[in-house]
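Appendix B, Record 12. Input sequence as logged:
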Amino acid sequence: MRIGIGYDVHRLAAGRKLVLGGVDIPFEKGLLGHSDADVLVHAVCDALLGAAGLGDIGMHFPDTDPDYKDISSIKILAKTYELVSSKKFKIMNLDSTIFADAPKLSPYRKEMQKNIARTIEIDPECVNVKATTLEGLGMIGRGEGIGAMCVALIDLRNKNQ
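Logged structural output:
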């Protein structure tokens, strides 16, 4: 078994959609980035790539590549899943936390879990998505950005799988 950790943070900006876990969330600002800037999915990707010893999201999907301009991060997750699977790893579970003082994310958690689980072909029960505030502290607490962290557990596939 192998464990990986992923973390991402993006600045909030007017004129952008807020996408977290592949879910469009109504909010007056969205995350600024080359792709859709989905910090949750980016953290998941980095956790999976790290666990598999495959570097990080920036190595595989650089923000200098026009192919990834405004791309859905769920598509990046699908490509990450292909990379991890090609090394004969099976994803066992993910545990993630989103850091945001606003908006309230609990109504969207289950849909985020389903989107991620469907993309990496595991049971939604094996994808945990939590959210917490920073109580007004730091850039996230001041409403300047949103961050996410994820821990992934993967295992080598059985020869019969």
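DSSP finds five helices and seven strands in the chain.
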